[in-house]
Design a protein that fits this description.
By secondary structure, this protein is mainly beta. The chain has 2 helices and 23 strands. It has helices spanning 3-12, 43-48, and strands at 27-31, 37-40, 53-56, 67-72, 77-82, 88-94, 100-103, 111-113, 117-126, 134-140, 165-171, 188-191, 197-199, 204-210, 216-217, 228-232, 238-242, 256-257, 262-265, 270-271, 276-285, 288-291, 306-309. Strands 11, 12, 14, 16, 17, 18, 21, 22 and 23 form a 9-stranded antiparallel beta sheet that branches. Strands 4-5-9-7 form a 4-stranded antiparallel beta sheet. The longest helix has 10 residues, at 3-12. It is globular, with a radius of gyration of 20 Å. It starts with a helix and ends with a strand.
Length: 310
């Protein structure tokens, strides 16, 4: 394979990998030859499709085409192009490393890239016959420098209840169908009327959002239609607010918000059985995004607990 072929493969950016099994409660995703993305909770259906599939356990996945790879065939240099305003944590993968003659790329290791930056990763010299595919995975934000295994909040004011009013937690940590993956194991769902003011649980910077959807329902096909806002905090943690009402945002990406500031209104977008707010505290780790335990106004948000913020 010639080097210009390598460039074309990198530019097309293969995303995802085969998954040979998945835990119960995951949504599965595969892409057909026309680029159409399918979502299902039936593993047999994913297997019978004939396409490679992976597990999809995130609420409000960031826009995938905003982080890409760029290769200069003359200098053999590989760049990460980050079009987000915030940092991202990227891992680069090679389909067959034996086809690489020489490289200094830290494959499969987390790489932090600042917002709006073309980041030089290193060089790749192709040295074999066959198709070499370079791909990338990424997560919004930088790597959390603390431990992801401890109980996050140590004082009642660390995180406040992220909405106005008084509503019960309808699904708590490790709950039911949707709170099983590492990104959402310690997430909560709180049922509330559409239009309820959603508040920043902690001061920080808005690093990612999608607010243009008006669609939702009880079918995995609605999964990518959830509106969301992500706020990164000084310690690297990120709070995530999902299923928000379309076009209800009071903030923009890049805004610095205060704790308790209204950021949007609750809604019923995405994969949902009814109007509610999905909330999680997440951290980037070398092994990927994880959620961690927390308290809101000093209260552990277990299923059935009344949370209130007047």
């Amino acid at each position: 394979m010639k080097i210009h072929k390598l460039f074309s493969v990198i530019a097309s950016l293969v995303i995802g990998a085969a998954c040979f099994g998945t835990a119960e409660g995951k949504i599965l995703r595969y892409v057909d030859e026309n680029g159409v993305v399918y979502y299902t909770d039936d593993e047999n259906s994913a297997q019978s499709s004939g396409y490679q599939y992976d597990s999809y356990d995130d609420w409000g996945e960031p826009e995938q085409d905003k982080v890409s790879l760029s290769f200069d065939p003359e200098t053999h240099k590989l760049y990460i192009v980050n079009e987000f305003a915030s940092e991202v944590t990227v891992k680069i993968k090679a389909s067959d490393k034996s086809l690489i003659k020489d490289t200094n790329i830290p494959f499969d290791e987390p790489i932090e890239v600042e917002g709006n930056q073309n980041y030089l990763v290193g060089y790749v010299i192709y040295g074999g016959e066959g198709e070499l595919t370079l791909s990338r995975t990424f997560d919004i934000g930088k790597i959390f420098r603390g431990s992801d295994s401890f109980y996050y909040t140590t004082n009642p004011n660390e995180l406040i209840v992220p909405f106005k009013g008084a509503f019960k937690v309808t699904q708590g940590w490790e709950g039911g169908f949707t709170h099983q993956g590492p990104k959402n194991r310690y997430a909560i769902d709180v049922a509330m009327p559409v239009g309820t003011p959603v508040l920043a649980a902690k001061a920080g910077k808005v690093v990612d959002m999608r607010m243009g959807s008006t669609s939702g329902g009880n079918n995995p096909s609605f999964r990518p239609m959830a509106n969301y806002i992500r706020i990164q905090h000084d310690d690297g943690t990120i709070t995530v607010y999902v299923h928000l009402k379309g076009n209800s945002q009071y903030v923009r990406v890049g805004d610095v918000v205060k704790q308790g500031q209204i950021i949007a209104q609750s809604g019923n977008t995405g994969y949902t059985t009814g109007p509610h707010l999905h909330f999680a505290l997440q951290t980037n780790t070398p092994s990927g995004v994880k959620s961690i335990k927390f308290k809101l106004n000093g209260v552990e948000p277990l299923s059935g607990v009344l949370l209130q913020n007047r």
